[in-house]
């Protein structure tokens, strides 16, 4: 007893006629269909269930909803604030320092929750254009800006120094042992003195012949590493002598053109993490080999990696270039341990990640997100 109108097609029956399947899709194994459906969110699964009875049965399988249900019970991340504009951040005890446009603002972390106080306790300014990156060391903030300058602030006091550093924007800075290193789009890295009477004096200018995206001083204070855009024929990861400015070594030999290094992180004087445009996290042990990393992990969705951090033990966190994807990795495993999609529906990179003993903070263009490790 069919309805009036055109006869029922096999598609209307949801593919119940095994002898004549309505679509080649039904020839796929069920485990492959479930794998495809596992990429859908709750809304998409609900829409899929309305197509036909067979898809309704498939989309209602527990294996598809278990991940979504777990996320609803404890999604982990909470969202704080809006419109951060390519932010960078640092943690210092009970305070979080966050760059917003040309300013750096200090927020007090609430003791019993993951939130921030509504208003910053301090604002550090001095740049004429956006702050690109900054570091916080020994109660001093050193920042590099789009105006080509470096600004030094003392947190507890009014002391500040600003000096012109590069011809183009200062993409990255680090500060250790009374020395600043900076890298710029102008294809140079520079070493600056902060000793009495020589504040802001350039000690060395390194011609990197490529745009410098990331920089870090070794914990031994004897060298520094630069991560460049990899537009030439040299490795984008190079280590330089801090005292003389001479090249010490190059890391890696198999980088493809354009595999720029966007972030570097020293765990120890000999252990180094790097990530960038080629979608890989690489773990280097300078004691064993400079030609090849000792471990590497690939971002599964082929996204560039903007930032990386580790707890200096087993856990690594990475921030991707699309849809605010934060991934947690265990060095003892080859695949991602867990992932979080923080930016929806608009896409944003994860510009910066920071750890504390209880929380992980991720800064996107739209908001600051916080993962509470203590939540059940």
Span of the ends, CA to CA: 54 Å
Count of beta strands: 28
Lateral arrangement of strands in the main beta sheet: 1-28-27-26
As a percent range, the share of strand residues is 35-45%
The biggest sheet, with number of strands, parallel, antiparallel or mixed sense and barrel status, is: 4 strands, antiparallel
What is Rg?
25 Å
Structural class: mainly beta
- Tally of helical segments: 4
* Tertiary shape: globular
Q: Which consecutive residue ranges, at least 5 long each, have pLDDT under 50? A: 1-17
Helical proportion, percent range: under 10%
Chain-averaged pLDDT: 86
Structural description of this entry:
The protein is mainly beta. The chain is built from four helices and 28 strands. 9% of the residues lie in helices and 42% in strands. The strands form seven sheets. Strands 1-28-27-26 form a four-stranded antiparallel beta sheet, with no helix packed on it. Strands 2-3-4-5 form a four-stranded antiparallel beta sheet, with no helix packed on it. A four-stranded antiparallel beta sheet has the order 6-7-8-9, with no helix packed on it. α2 (42-49) packs antiparallel against α3 (53-59). The radius of gyration is 25 Å and the shape is globular. The protein starts with 29 loop residues before the first helix and ends with a strand. Residues 1-17 have low confidence and may be disordered.
């Amino acid at each position: 007893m069919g309805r009036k109108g055109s006869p029922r097609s096999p598609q209307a029956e949801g593919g119940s006629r095994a002898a004549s399947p309505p679509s080649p899709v039904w020839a796929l194994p069920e485990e492959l269909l479930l794998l495809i459906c596992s990429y859908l969110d709750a809304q998409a699964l609900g829409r899929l269930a309305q197509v036909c009875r067979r898809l309704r049965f498939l989309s209602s399988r527990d294996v598809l909803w278990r991940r979504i249900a777990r996320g609803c019970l404890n999604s982990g991340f909470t969202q704080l604030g809006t419109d951060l504009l390519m932010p960078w951040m640092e943690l210092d005890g009970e305070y979080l320092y966050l760059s917003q446009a040309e300013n750096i603002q200090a927020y007090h972390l609430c003791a019993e929750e993951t939130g921030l106080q509504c208003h910053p306790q301090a604002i550090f300014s001095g740049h004429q254009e956006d702050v690109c990156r900054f570091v916080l060391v020994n109660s001093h903030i050193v920042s590099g800006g789009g105006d080509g300058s470096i600004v030094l602030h003392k947190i507890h006091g009014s002391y500040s120094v600003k000096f012109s550093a590069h011809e183009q924007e200062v993409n990255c800075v680090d500060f250790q042992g009374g020395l600043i290193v900076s890298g710029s789009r102008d294809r140079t890295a520079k070493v600056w003195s902060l000793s009495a009477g020589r504040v802001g004096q350039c000690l060395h200018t390194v011609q990197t012949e490529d745009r410098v995206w990331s920089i870090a001083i070794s914990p031994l204070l004897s060298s520094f590493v630069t991560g460049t855009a990899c537009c030439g024929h040299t490795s984008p990861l190079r280590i330089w002598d801090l005292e003389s400015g001479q090249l010490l070594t190059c890391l890696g030999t198999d980088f493809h053109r354009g595999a720029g290094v966007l972030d570097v992180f020293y765990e120890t004087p000999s252990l180094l993490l790097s990530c960038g445009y080629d979608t890989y996290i690489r773990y280097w042990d300078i004691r064993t080999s400079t030609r090849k990393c000792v471990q590497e992990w690939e971002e599964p969705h082929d996204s560039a990696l903007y930032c990386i951090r580790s707890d200096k033990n087993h856990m690594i966190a990475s921030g991707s270039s699309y849809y605010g994807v934060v991934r947690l990795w265990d060095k003892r495993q080859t695949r991602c341990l867990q992932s979080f999609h923080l930016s929806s529906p608009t896409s944003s990179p994860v510009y910066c990640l920071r750890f504390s003993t209880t929380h992980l903070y991720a800064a996107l263009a739209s908001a600051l997100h916080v993962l509470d490790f203590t939540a059940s």
